[in-house]
Specification:
Number of strands: 20
Number of helices: 10
Number of domains: 2
CATH superfamily of the largest domain: FAD/NAD(P)-binding domain
CATH class of the largest domain: Alpha Beta
Distance between the termini: 47 Å
CATH topology of the largest domain: FAD/NAD(P)-binding domain
Largest sheet: 8 strands, mixed
Structural class: alpha+beta
Radius of gyration: 21 Å
CATH architecture of the largest domain: 3-Layer(bba) Sandwich
Helix content: 25-40%
Order of helices and strands: EHEEEEHEEEEHEEEEHEEEEHHEEEHHHH
Length: 375
């Protein structure tokens, strides 16, 4: 079988992969999205994307919302106007809270399925080609990258040759492993997240973060009568067990019916040797992940999709990987530093218990941090 040849292969048809593909097509690149969940029609041609729900943050902070709107997508949701931290549990500081409204304007709470559907519809309208399949091998020779794609219902594999590859295949990226960019895990807390949705009129237009003794609870309004509730904690923490450690949040929920089952993700911390190697660039969670503490995953992911396409379209000989790595480092530096620092503090019980009281005592500092992350 003759290999299909394209300028850019985007591996992963989630929000970040679709964002990269939309920007590539708009820039005049011959691009294709490789996604196992693309729906094949007769003959193996993909006709659309299956919208998949995953346990991820659903708050589009102002910067992330701007990235989505710039792609021509406008998913339904609920306004997000700021961040509130609440000390939950039974400690001496229980009930303390600190809030800040975004100065950059409102963001939006959006169900992951709604965001994915909006971007998938935009990709279909823009004529973004899809290839239903899973990448089973990746080899690059300095001038191109060859991908072997296992296509559902087909014997053998379908070869795909690309000048560039963007790996946007998530937390447990196969492209990252195949390109030799995965780094071994280090010590430290191993954390997981579990998320559900409740049929409840949001009581706030803020993302509300409840700090318990060993877990955090995140509440995001995602519609006029629905909120997303996520619990982050150590390995083995169930949603029910996590909520039991957050009595103020449990009281707020008031026994509202759950509209979705619990979905988990993790381990959250993922390390990489580099975000690019040769002609392979990593975007979104595939490019490494610290933690969900700051709720910036979507903003960073969408920005990395934009930066990857900018690096490819502005290529100068073999400097694309270096240009992308430098741009990615600049774009994510504050996020990575703040998330790592907050996570380190959260791992030490005395510091964890002091986080909300200290933030409440210095609201200007808290507000500056929130606004930096929201950009």
């Amino acid at each position: 079988m003759a290999a299909r040849v394209v300028d850019l292969a985007v591996v992963g048809g989630g929000p970040v992969g679709l964002a990269a593909a939309l920007r590539a097509v708009a820039a005049g690149l011959d691009a294709v999205v490789v996604e196992p969940r693309a729906r094949p029609a007769g003959g193996g041609a993909a006709t659309g994307l299956e919208v998949v729900d995953k346990a991820c943050g659903e708050g589009l902070l102002p910067g992330a919302l701007a990235e989505v709107l710039a792609l021509g997508a406008d998913p339904p949701g609920a306004p997000l106007t700021g961040i509130t931290y609440v000390q939950d549990g039974d400690g001496a500081a229980a009930g303390r809270a600190v809030s800040h409204d975004f100065t950059a304007g409102a963001g939006r709470g959006v169900r992951r399925t709604a965001l994915h559907a909006a971007l998938a519809e935009r990709a279909a309208a823009a004529g973004v080609p899809l290839l239903a399949g899973r990448v089973v091998e990746l080899v690059q020779d300095g001038a191109r990258v060859q991908l072997d794609v296992a296509v559902p219902g087909a014997a053998g594999v379908e070869p795909l040759v690309a000048r560039w590859v963007v790996g946007a295949d998530g937390l447990h990226s196969g492209v990252r492993r195949a390109a030799g960019l995965e780094a071994p895990a280090r010590g430290g807390a191993v954390r997981f997240g579990v998320r559900r949705h409740a049929a409840l009129v949001p009581w706030s237009s803020h993302v509300e973060v409840h700090w318990g003794r060993g877990v955090e609870g995140y509440v995001t309004p995602v519609g006029p009568r629905e909120v997303g509730v996520a619990v982050l904690g150590p390995r083995g923490t169930t949603f029910t067990e996590g909520l039991e450690q957050l009595p103020a949040l449990a009281h707020r929920l008031g026994g509202a019916p759950w509209t979705t089952a619990a979905r988990g993700a993790g381990p959250l911390r993922q390390r990489v040797r580099a975000v690019a190697s040769g002609r392979v660039l990593l975007a979104g969670d595939a490019a490494g992940y610290v933690d969900a503490l700051t709720g910036e995953g979507l903003r960073v992911g969408l920005a990395s999709a934009r930066l990857a396409v900018e690096a490819v379209t502005g290529e100068r000989a073999r400097r694309v990987a270096d240009a992308y790595a430098a741009a990615w480092a600049r774009e994510t530096r504050a996020h990575r530093a703040l998330t790592a620092g907050l996570l380190a503090a959260a791992e030490l019980r005395p510091l964890r218990a002091a986080l909300v009281p200290v933030a409440a005592a210095a609201p200007g500092v808290f507000g500056a941090v929130v606004d930096r992350l929201a950009r």
